[in-house]
Structure formats: C-alpha cells, structure tokens
DNA sequence: GCGACAG
DNA sequence: ATCTTGTCGC
C-alpha cells in the first residue's frame, strides 16, 4: 500500500511539535464500524539504534493471518515523551509499503488522541495512510481516570483538559487495563469495541501480539 | 518551580 | 524499548 509523505523529517523538537500541531487538524473522529482486514503494528529495538518493524494483517472476522511483513531500520529521533512516534515512523512506513493488501484498520502500539498535543502515533499513522487507526497503550500517559471495574469489558473515561481523550479498558478479568484512544477515522465507541473484540483471549489485542512476536523473531 | 512522562 | 530470577496462577 501507499503511504503519503506529508512533511519533511524534523531535525529538532520544535519542528517535530509543529508538525504534530499542523497534522492534528487532519484527524477525523468518526468512521466505519466494521473492518474486513485489521493490521497490528509493532517495533522491536536492538543494539544501539537498530529497529525491526512488523505489520501483521488479520482477517477481521476470523482473525486468521492474511499477510505479514517486516522492515529493518534505525531509530529516527531521540526519545522525547510526546515525540515517540518520530522514533519508529520511518521503519513502520517501510513495512506498510511492503504490504500487498490494504488493511481497513491499523491497531497501533501507543497512543492516539490521548497525547499532550492530541496527536500520538496512532493519529500520525492514520493521517499518513488515510486509514482508520486506533492506539492501545500499556501504561497510563496523560490525563486522569478512575480504575475500571474488575470484569472484562469495564471501562472508565480518560479526561484531559476538560475533554475525554480515551478510555482505560479492562480486556481480561483481574488484569491491568489497557488505554484505548482514537487515531483517525474512528469513534471512541468503535475503537473500544474493536479492542475488546480483538483481545478476547489475552490482555493485548491479537494483531499487536502477532506483530510483537514477528518483530522479535523475524522469519 | 520541579519532576515525571507512550515505547 | 531493554537489562533480568523467581513466583504465582491457569
């Protein structure tokens, strides 16, 4: 599939932040509610600055694997909270461009709207591809929230500066919640429903687990 | 003001 | 992210 280059690569924190501030205006918060093909994305770090990006496409109904690709690259930016996306974006884009099918939903490892400037990795990937995208975080980042109830499916809103930017979602009984936020072309209800459905067996959604495994053990 | 801060 | 043992639960 094709990915759009909507901006030059930033060479400073200020440039990176201004790119986020500009692209934020392109995010759409409504979209489809069903997805024929869902893709999970993840990056594995090794050595000083080497990264392996993996994208795994699953059948949206059966969750059977349809296609998987990996790309090797280098960390493209220093780690700065809020600018995390710039580290792995180039390698993730390389991997996406090797896909022979176009997914209908990107399930990203990180945040979307629940981000200091409202433009996390999931928003960035969504806008560059034009595809619906959502973010799944494993630890709280911004905003405040109450712990959700212990049962699978329980959730509480994540509030930040007077707005709801995501949800803490319990995907398995008695297991730490995950943090769901919108990336692009998806509602918060749909994002929550998809993550819950894709995480029927484990804490993390199946596409992210597959991508994580592939990035660690490239075939 | 200072520290903490997705992966 | 990654460096790492043992322990608990399914």
> By helix and strand content, what is the structural category?
alpha+beta
Described by the principal axes of the CA atoms, the overall outline is globular
Distance between the termini: 21 Å
| Proportion of residues in β-strands | 25-35%
Order of helices and strands: HEEEHEHEEEEHH
Q: CATH homologous superfamily - what is it?
A: archaeoglobus fulgidus dsm 4304 superfamily
Question: Portion of residues in helices?
Answer: 25-40%
CATH topology: archaeoglobus fulgidus dsm 4304 fold
Which regions contain 5 or more consecutive residues with pLDDT less than 50? Answer: none
Tell me the major beta sheet.
8 strands, mixed
Count every beta strand, where a strand is a DSSP E run of 2 or more residues: 8
Order of strands in the sheet with the most strands? 3-2-1-4-5-8-7-6
Structural Rg: 16 Å
| Count of distinct structural domains | 1
- The CATH architecture comes to 2-Layer Sandwich
Describe what this molecule looks like in 3D.
With about 220 residues, the chain is an alpha+beta fold. Helix content is about 25%, strand content about 25%. It has a single domain (about 15-215), classed as archaeoglobus fulgidus dsm 4304 superfamily (archaeoglobus fulgidus dsm 4304 fold). It is built from five helices and eight strands; from the N terminus they run αβββαβαββββαα. The protein has an eight-stranded mixed sheet, sandwiched between helices. The chain binds two DNA strands through β1 and α2. This is Endonuclease V. It is found in: Cytoplasm. GO terms for molecular function: deoxyribonuclease V activity; magnesium ion binding; RNA endonuclease activity producing 5'-phosphomonoesters, hydrolytic mechanism; single-stranded RNA binding.
């Amino acid at each position: 599939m094709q990915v759009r280059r909507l901006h030059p690569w930033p060479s400073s924190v200020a440039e990176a932040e201004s790119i986020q501030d500009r692209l934020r205006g392109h995010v759409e918060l409504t979209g489809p509610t069903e997805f024929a093909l869902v893709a999970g994305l993840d990056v594995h770090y090794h050595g000083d600055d080497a990264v392996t990006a993996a994208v795994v496409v699953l059948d949206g109904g059966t969750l059977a694997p349809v296609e998987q690709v990996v790309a090797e690259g280098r960390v493209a930016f220093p780690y700065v909270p809020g600018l995390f996306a710039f580290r792995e974006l180039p390698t993730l884009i390389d991997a996406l461009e090797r896909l022979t099918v176009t997914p209908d939903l990107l399930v990203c490892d990180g945040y979307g709207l629940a981000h200091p400037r409202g433009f996390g990795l999931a928003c960035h990937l969504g806008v560059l591809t034009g595809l619906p995208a959502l973010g799944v975080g494993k630890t709280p980042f911004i905003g405040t929230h109450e712990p959700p109830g212990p049962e699978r499916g329980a959730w509480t809103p994540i509030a930040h500066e007077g707005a709801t930017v995501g949800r803490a979602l319990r995907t398995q009984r008695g297991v730490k919640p995950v943090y769901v936020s919108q990336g692009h072309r998806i509602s918060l209800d749909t994002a929550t429903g998809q993550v819950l459905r894709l995480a029927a067996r484990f804490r993390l959604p199946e596409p992210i687990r597959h991508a994580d495994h592939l990035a660690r053990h490239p075939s």
